[in-house]
Structure formats: structure tokens, C-alpha cells
Amino acid sequence: MTGKIIAVIGGGSFGTAIADIIASNGHEVRQWMRDETLAETINRDHINTTYLPDYRLHPGVRASTDILWAAAEADVVFVSIPSSSFRTVVASMKAVVGGKILISTTKGVEAGSFDLMSQILAEEVPTARIGVLSGPNLAKEVVAKAITATVVASDDEALCQEVQQLLHSDYFRVYSNHDIYGVELGGALKNIYAIVAGLAESLGMGENTKSMLITRSLAEMSRFAVRMGANPLTFLGLSGVGDLIVTCTSPLSRNFRVGFALGKGKSLEEAEAELGQVAEGINTLRLVRDKARELEVYMPLVDGLYEIVFNKRSIREVTRELMLGEQKTDVEFILQSDSKDGV
Ligand SMILES: NC(=O)C1=CN([C@@H]2O[C@H](COP(=O)(O)OP(=O)(O)OC[C@H]3O[C@@H](n4cnc5c(N)ncnc54)[C@H](O)[C@@H]3O)[C@@H](O)[C@H]2O)C=CC1
Ligand SMILES: O=C(CO)COP(=O)(O)O
User: Fold this and answer.
1) Which residues contact 105 (CB under 8 A, 6 or more apart)?
2) Which of 25, 26, 56, 93 matches a 20 to 30 Å C-alpha distance to 77?
3) Which atom of ligand 2 is found nearest the CA of 191?
């Protein structure tokens, strides 16, 4: 498959990383962004100086601030816009993307509706063929061509195959999955637990603690996802445990870095300002905490983090409460959506 026109909507870290992969595979990539100066720099110097200044992009990536130029002739449109602006941006191109393949790479939840991004795509462009891309894919490692794998999810098998072919290379491997909701939810939920892991790291907690947190995070996110209708087995794949591991262990994760800064005594505002990029987990934490209460899903790590971040309770006090909580069983969470096990 050569010579396709592919649109990437979003000029941030991940949109740029995806654009670079696709152009390296011989396709014409039209990347849309708001910042005219950045678009000019990408076209002239092939560097995204704002988000990935240390990497030279494939010259087949061409950037513009004209979303209709990017999307109208595209065979496939990747959308890599933070969840808070996702609907507005998709709405602005809906006149030209009907019937096309639209792929979200965004790992977040919409406030108010609790919609995931594939649901927004379906609502805004009902005739589109829809999929999501999610997995352990730190943008800086992807653009550095570190060996990486990801998941494309859709109930449209031909779409999965097309996206696999577009992205597949000797450093980027793409698996398919039909549980679109589970794959997408895994990517959104793990951001919350990356904040928890960053907090633990900043407090100098040991390897036992980190292992416990990752494992219990997986239990908790799976329990929530099953209640929401996802397949629990999805959480044992790249978009579940895979993405959880990478974001809970790497300082390249912005959510991890927000947790680290909070643990060092910074306010949420300071932590976010220092980052200068999107950390979806804070917004997702608020939304998931409310949804879990509504659905009566037991999520002690979400509740504990919420107390620390939004009610300013001390980390040590919340940790002590979690550790001294009711005694629980270990592994049956994965198949029982109503299980009340916990940390
Ligand atoms: N950076 C990473 O390693 C990965 C990020 N993702 C996901 O991709 C999504 C985007 O993240 P990044 O590209 O990393 O974020 P980023 O913070 O690097 O860039 C966000 C981009 O969105 C643009 N933007 C924000 N509001 C906008 C609006 N209203 N209209 C148009 N553009 C707008 C910004 O100008 C910027 O270009 C997030 O949901 C993230 O979870 C997924 C996989 C990996
Ligand atoms: O989703 C990611 C890697 O898979 C990136 O995580 P952050 O948004 O925390 O940087």
C-alpha cells in the first residue's frame, strides 16, 4: 500500500509522532495544527520545535493551519487532539470527512457526557468508519524509532487491516482488537494511575510499593471497565497492562510527572504549568471518581488520589487509610464486575 493521503489532526507530541511513522512508510501526510509559525517550521526544517525539538521528521510530513486542506482529500484521518477540545475540532471538519476512516489516538474522557473519543466521532460524523489507536507509545520513543507496539481497535476488520498496513514497520508493530471500548478505556484510565505512581516515586517508595500499585491499579481499572461493558481480557493486552506499565514507570509520561510534582509539594496548578503539555489523567480522575460512585464500583486508588489532589488531604494519611482498609482477596477481580476486592 503506497501513496495514500493521510491526515493527522493535532500538532502536539503524539500527532507528530504518528505523522512521522506514516510519512516514513511512504505516504503523504497532511498535519493540521493551530500554530502557523510551527507549521511553517515543520515545512521548512522538518522539526516540531514546540513538542519534539530534538527529532528530525520525515519530509513527507507537511503541516498547515487549514483543517479542510488536511482532511478533505485524506483516505484516513487520525485525530490527536486533547479530549477537552476533541469534539469542537472534529465538528469543524465534519463537512469533509463523512464516510472516511477516522482514528482517535486521544486517551481521555469527555466531561459531562462521559463519552470516549470514538463515541464523539460517531456522534459528530455518523457515516464515518471509526477506530482507536492505543498502547504503550510514549511519543518521544516513537519518534526516536524505539521498537514499539500498539493496538488498533474497531469492529471494522478491514479498517484494522488498513491501519496496520499504514503504520507497520520494522520498529512499529500494530496489533488489532475488536473491543474498541475496552482498548480506549484502558488508555484513558491508566493516566490516573500514572499520577499515583509518580507520587509514589517522588516519596522514595520502594519497588514492592511500585509493584503493588501497578497490580492493584490493573485490578481497579479492569473492575471499572467491566462494569462499563468492556472485555476484561483486553486489560491484559498492550492497551491495558502494557500502557499501565510504561506510564507508571517512565518520567517521559506527563501524568507520571504531574504526580511526581504533587508529591514534591507543588500545587496542581504549578504542576500543570510546569508541564506545559496535556496530562489527561487529572480530568479523567474527576470524571471516573464521579462515575464510579454513580455505578457503585469500588475504586480505592481513585478515591485516595482524588482526596489528595482535590481535597488537599495528606498523602501519608490517605496511604495509611488505604493500607489499613478492609482485608480483601487477590485476583478474582478480572471476571467479576461487582467484586469488592481492593488494595
Ligand atoms: N504524548 C504521548 O506520548 C501520547 C499521547 N497520547 C494522547 O494523545 C492526545 C494528545 O496528546 P499530545 O499530542 O501528547 O499532547 P500535547 O500536549 O503534546 O499537544 C496537544 C496538541 O493539541 C493542540 N490543541 C489543544 N487544544 C486545541 C484546540 N482547541 N484546537 C486545536 N488544537 C488544540 C495543542 O496546540 C497541541 O498541538 C492526548 O489525549 C494523549 O493522551 C497518546 C499516546 C501517546
Ligand atoms: O499515553 C502515553 C504513553 O502510552 C503517554 O502518557 P502521558 O500522557 O502521561 O505522557
Assistant:
1) 14, 15, 18, 78, 79, 80, 132, 133, 134
2) 56
3) 9
Is the ipTM beyond the 0.95 threshold?
A: yes
Q: What spacing in Å lies between the alpha carbon of 214 and ligand 2's midpoint?
A: 15
pLDDT digits 0-9 by tens, 254-306: 999 999 999 999 999 999 999 988 899 999 999 999 999 999 999 999 999 99
What residue ranges define each of the domains in the chain, with the CATH number in brackets?
5-178 (3.40.50.720), 186-335 (1.10.1040.10)
DSSP count for the chain of H helices, then E strands: 15, 8
Query: Directed axis angle between helix 268-275 and helix 254-263, to 10°?
Result: 140
Question: Can you tell me which atom of ligand 1 is nearest the CA of 135?
Answer: 43
In angstroms, the Cα distances linking 226 to 112, 138, 165, 292, 331 are 21, 26, 30, 12, 15
Burial of 4 (0-12, 13-18, 19+ CB in 10 A): middle
CA-wise closest residue to 70 among 53, 92, 54, 55: 92
Residue 76 pLDDT exceeds 50:
yes
Please, which residues bridge with residue 133 across strands?
Answer: 152
Residue 106 corresponds to which cell in the numbers above? 486521544
**Cell reading at 152:** 488498533
CA distances to 119, 210, 223 from 285, rounded to whole Å, are 19, 19, 15
> Ligand 2 in contact with 246 (CB < 6 A)?
yes
Distance 135 CA to ligand 1 centre (A): 15
Residues in the chain: 343
Is position 190 annotated as part of the catalytic site?
A: yes
The number of the ligand nearest the C-alpha atom of 255 reads 2
Q: Which of 94, 190, 264, 291 is catalytic?
A: 190
